[in-house]
Amino acid sequence: MRAIRAASAALLGATALALTAPTAVAAQRGAGLGFTVTPSTVAAGGRLTLAAPGCRSSGTASAAVFDTVTVPAGGTAAATVDWDARRGATYRTTFTCGSGGTAAASFTIAGGATPTRTPTVRPTRTPTPVTTATSVAPGGVRGGLGGSVGGMNTAEILAGTALVVAAATGTIYVVRRRAENRGH
Predict the structure, then answer these.
(1) Do 102 and 66 touch, CB atoms closer than 8 A?
(2) pLDDT value for 6
(3) Quick one: which of 35, 33, 87 has its CA closest to 65?
(4) What integer pLDDT is reported at residue 153 of this predicted model?
């Protein structure tokens, strides 16, 4: 029984580490100046917060998907990501401190594959004779998702898998512990 407890604790610890590692890496890349880019994953058109508390004078931050931003000494600044940023791509932000120091940090654009556009089909109306008092729709309701799903990426799949494994492990642990306490 101790092996199951140890395995459960190890699995939960590994899951917690795996889920928090990307944010920690993004914050540490500019550690020399204390430079941070938050959040580490942002949607196209979203806002990033840039901070450099270790820089004694104002500096600039720039990336391929937002305009150059001036960050005040010890303060923060906001940058708006361009709408045409490629979803799923990782971009590097370069920070230059006024005193000459430089640092870099990365962030990722949210979303997986870029959706493909399909041509719009416009139906043509042709009169049809109605021979009965009631008419039935030929195919039923077509609900669909209405474009609410933009695709999946590897991180979402791994996170979902980790949650399912954690739930299954917890369930097995509780059921086995109950059976042990009954004395059967």
Answers:
(1) no
(2) 63
(3) 87
(4) 78
